[in-house]
Amino acid sequence: MENFKIEVDGDGIALVTFDVPGRTMNTLTASVIKEVGELVERIKTDAEIKGVVITSGKTTGFCAGADLGELGGSGGLGGASKGQEGLQAAFDAGFALNKAFRELETSGKPVAAAINGLALGGGLEFVLAAHYRVVADLPKLQLGLPEAKVGLLPGGGGTQRLTRLMGVMAAAPYLLEGKSMKPAEALGLKVVHEVVPAGQEVEAAKTWIKTKGDPVAPWDKKDFKIPGGGPYTPTGAQVFIMGNAMLRKNTYGNYPAQQNIMKAVYEGLQVPFDAAIRIETRYFIKTLMTPQAKGMIRTLFLSLQELGKGAGRPDGVPHYDVKKVAVLGAGMMGAGIAYVQAMAGIETVLIDQSQEAADKGKGYAEGLVKKAVSRGKLTQEKGEAILALIHPTADYANVKGSDLVVEAVFENREVKAAVTKLAEAQLADTAVFGSNTSTLPITGLAEASIRPESFIGIHFFSPVDKMGLVEIILGEKTDQATIAKSIDYVLKIKKTPIVVNDSRGFYTSRCFGTFVQEGMELLSDGIAPAIIDNVGRATGMPRGPLEMHDDVALDLSHKIAVQTKKDLGDKYEERPFTAIIAKMVEDLGRYGRKNGKGFYDYPENGPKTLWPGLSDLVEVTVKDADKALIEQIRTRLLYRQAVEAARCFEEGVITDPREADVGAILGWGFAPWTGGPISLIDGVGVATFVETLDQLAAAYGARFTPPALLREMAAKGETFYGRFGVKEKAAA
Ligand SMILES: NC(=O)c1ccc[n+]([C@@H]2O[C@H](COP(=O)([O-])OP(=O)(O)OC[C@H]3O[C@@H](n4cnc5c(N)ncnc54)[C@H](O)[C@@H]3O)[C@@H](O)[C@H]2O)c1
């Protein structure tokens, strides 16, 4: 065996060390799954072995779970054909691990797990099949089943063993939300039996084998009862009734993984364990074959990981270590950017018009650091060292020596041009100038620069400390070195970069804007605001389009509409709703959440309520929604965003499907269950998508008309990931 090392000591205890060669972290690759079976066979048949201790040879942890690259890829189980034979083969392959773990559990020999680092997903399922679990007392060690987060179901016995250990109610957040637990928490929940100082776990496991060494799992004992009662008891049944209602409320039925986890638990807890794990595998395969699982694994795991390693970075440019950055403008965005930079150890010059304004910006970081210290997430010294990296000033001479500049002053061309000149006067030739503009085209802003090849858009999202995405925007003259350097900077501050070309609203704001606009179209169509926002949420977006419009700010939206009309002239298409917004902003002072008055009223204490005055501005003709109307609204809201993303491909605004999908979910909260707008289109099939768009265009107008690219792809039977996949990009 190449993944497991076995050493039998004088007491007949076999120490099994799990150590996948050539990897920093153990995962359950196909080779490991095969060898777990061989390992169990050896344990069962080797008379010398009286008991087993399983541990990991990696310093990084015990095991991070399934190899999602293998599992989710087209060659993996998710790509199994749906015919009877294909399904049987997928079941057999999917059941192999479950079966091997069960054989370990019923080998007749006591098995203890010495957990010396994180155990996630299949890693935790592995140790759950042991009879005794000792875990090292490491503050960062995590135990959990995160499968649901990428649209999967734990398929190595996790749904059955965790519920039998903890009870259904207690296990629910760990199974359905993928919540993880620290050692002490796991001990309290009876998921592990002992927490010992790091380094002593193997000894403690051996002691258990020598002193107690019970080789029977609790559920294989005669008097076993599910904590809190199984589904057939009155209390247990109640948990399922409530649980299903909660699940529906939180997920609107968009996530098959969560639904299938509930079903696997409900059905599995009513039968003996051996039948239960077969039920689990059936739901595991069923879940894995859904487009939701495929999209979520690809986007939220694989692509996120690749972009986090700089997948879109141009080759041949040496790594650029950004040590000092000047942030121009210490307002809401500048202050947040200064904070994340300092957290990453970057010396930060924070500039505003006055020392007072710059100090105020640093005050924001001081607040966040204070909070982190009070919560025990940072020590006092570390907090002080971080804050000492931020130098607030009004003097541009301090820009000298910066490797990069992030400009975050007012959204005004003249002001931006002025600070560009002031900063560039201090910069070395190699330094990058990045603008955090949210709406002004980069090529235009670069006209104020004496070195436009080093000028780029570095677009953050608010609140900067929470949002993981940064959109890098290329101007016409931006060179490859500047792109690479900007990516290095974004990775250093632990954010995910996507690279896009200049366009009105770039990629993220442009696509997100269509969601808000379609909400306005629905309003102009006479649909009741409550229906619009309820269905909006049910699509899987974080909030409905009207509420999101309030978040964006109605005055900003009005300002952008006025500016766009001015810029586009004859090409500007006036929509009926622009008059509604104009009236709300100009006559009624309703600016959105920021002044407590928008489509909703936001009282200081108390929940928001829909603004009753809206019915004076727009006539509501549809007050009830049947299933068909709900489906239509849902399709309009999701497809409007997806077709805009497709247009961005056609225009070359974005070129990599991974960036489009990751950017959508991280940037504007596009319904995660889809895997992103591009995965959504690929999932339904381009031809079917085009057909629906044609119907929508006939009913609602040209904004739904499929771009030529989509028609061409439909005719050729192409997918986005096929046509714009990684290989083609590299060849281009
Ligand atoms: N607010 C958002 O959600 C968001 C998101 C992404 C990008 N942006 C963009 O970021 C930029 C800043 O936005 P914000 O929300 O932080 O605005 P803000 O009004 O909070 O801050 C702007 C700051 O720039 C300072 N400033 C103005 N002129 C200056 C000068 N000549 N020199 C130095 N400082 C000067 C102002 O005093 C103010 O503190 C804008 O371009 C905006 O479009 C905003």
Strand order of the largest sheet: 13-12-11-14-15-16-17-18
Percent strand equals 5-15%
Report the structural category: alpha/beta
Number of domain units: 3
Percent helix among the residues? Answer: 40-55%
**How many alpha or pi helices?**
31
CATH-defined fold name of the largest domain: 2-enoyl-CoA Hydratase, Chain A, domain 1
C-alpha Rg, in Å?
28 Å
Instruction: State the fourth-level CATH superfamily of the largest domain.
Output: 2-enoyl-CoA Hydratase, Chain A, domain 1
Taken from the alpha-carbon principal axes, the silhouette is globular
Which small-molecule ligands are present, each listed once? nicotinamide-adenine-dinucleotide
Distance N terminus to C terminus? Answer: 43 Å
Q: Tell me about the largest β-sheet.
A: 8 strands, mixed
Kindly state the number of beta strands: 20
Family: In the central section; belongs to the 3-hydroxyacyl-CoA dehydrogenase family.
Domain 3-hydroxyacyl-CoA dehydrogenase NAD binding: 324-502
Pathway: Lipid metabolism; fatty acid beta-oxidation
Domain 3-hydroxyacyl-CoA dehydrogenase C-terminal: 505-602, 635-718
Features:
Rossmann fold, enoyl-CoA hydratase activity, 3HC_DH_C, single chain, 8-stranded mixed β-sheet, 2-enoyl-CoA Hydratase, Chain A, domain 1, 3 domains, alpha/beta
What would you say this structure looks like, in words?
It is built from 31 helices and 20 strands. The protein has about 725 residues and is an alpha/beta fold. It has 3 domains: about 5-280, 2-enoyl-CoA Hydratase, Chain A, domain 1 (Alpha-Beta Complex); about 325-490, Rossmann fold (3-Layer(aba) Sandwich); about 510-725, N-(1-d-carboxylethyl)-l-norvaline Dehydrogenase, domain 2 (Orthogonal Bundle). The chain has an 8-stranded mixed β-sheet with strand order 13-12-11-14-15-16-17-18, with helices on both faces. Helix 18 (about 480-490) links the parallel strand 17 and strand 18. The longest helix is centred in the C-terminal third of the chain and has 24 residues, at about 625-650. The radius of gyration is 28 Å and the shape is globular. Bound molecules: nicotinamide-adenine-dinucleotide. Nicotinamide-adenine-dinucleotide binds near residues 408 and 419. Pathway: Lipid metabolism; fatty acid beta-oxidation. In the central section; belongs to the 3-hydroxyacyl-CoA dehydrogenase family.
